Amino acid sequence: MSAPKIDPASYATQLAEKQQRLSELLAPFDAPAPELFDSPREHYRLRAEFRLWREGEQRHYAMFEAGDKHRPILIDDFPIASTRINALMPRLKAAWQASATLSFKLFQVEFLTTLAGDALITLCYHRPLDALWQAEAERLAEELDVSLVGRSRGQRLVIGRDHVIEKLEVAGRRFRYRQPEGAFTQPNGVVCEKMLNWAFEALGQRDDDLLELYCGNGNFTLPLATRVRQVLATEISKTSVNAALANLADNGVNNVSLVRLSAEELTEALNEVRPFRRLAGLDLKSYEFGSVFVDPPRAGMDPDTCELTRRFQRILYISCNPETLAANIAQLHDTHRVSRCALFDQFPYTHHMEAGVLLERR
Known about the structure:
By secondary structure, the protein is an alpha/beta fold. It has 2 domains: 8-41 and 188-361, 3-Layer(aba) Sandwich (Rossmann fold), CATH 3.40.50; 47-164, CATH 2.40.50.1070. Helix content is 30%, strand content 29%. It contains 10 helices and 17 strands. It has helices spanning 11-26, 83-97, 100-103, 131-144, 189-203, 221-225, 238-250, 263-270, 303-309, 322-332; strands spanning 35-37, 47-55, 58-63, 73-75, 106-113, 119-125, 147-152, 155-159, 163-170, 173-180, 209-213, 231-234, 256-259, 289-294, 314-319, 336-344, 354-361. It has an 8-stranded mixed sheet with strand order 1-16-17-15-14-11-12-13, with helices on both faces. The N and C termini lie far apart (56 Å). Its EC number is 2.1.1.35.
């Protein structure tokens, strides 16, 4: 069985259908027509994950339909993945087929690449990794010119770096991002760059402060920090917090305070429900917040956090789930109007889409 074929000829139709769907979801709020940001038709995905399927003495890249783990779709190439991933796939396969050390109990392969040309491969095993494996893996990493991570239960061996470097341009400035292995990053780099530029423009130049919830590795934090006096950013993932701190330092962005709190915890702190040790030394009352930026998970903002955002003059919201976005806007619609909205096609040939809205106080 071969991988499903994409159909670039149908792309415009699919994108128009998504635009119509977003317009319908936002129609109750008198939103303007969505600005449209399309994707490359092929080779747009910078991450890919494959299980390995064994037939005889050979292991093949494989994917499965949702809910079906018994009938693999065997993959030789993957047109939606970056050209770097497609170039690495056959070379990695040839390497594990030529080496019992590399292939023994190897069950999953993950690729992480960047528009800047960096690449990291993660090899996952159902066995301990020893010195022989490390020697073989070091030779492979050098041959493929990649960083490599070996994972097994209780083990994580890193050859090279445990992150890739991305470079994205926003309003003429190039920002440098460390993207850690195993942490969330935007999968479509071209569309991510369009999202950053849209958010940068939508926020505008401000003389007050920005609150950012769910900041991740600082993807939006870096460019948005150049538009305001100072930023208070929050993120709960320790890996993402460490990456964000490194990215702030690497880019010389020094007007951001980052705290490891969930959005719900920060809401409690701002409402003075209870104190948090992680906020010690930070004077929340010294901030003059005019805007809040949120990029929540698919579940959207919880009701209390949504209510918190009502305090701000401007709410800049990036969403990976337009249904929960619409539910959050419904809660805010009596005090805020949608002045701008956008569709970002991160996931061509699927029903998934990213959306952005700017809500301003009435």
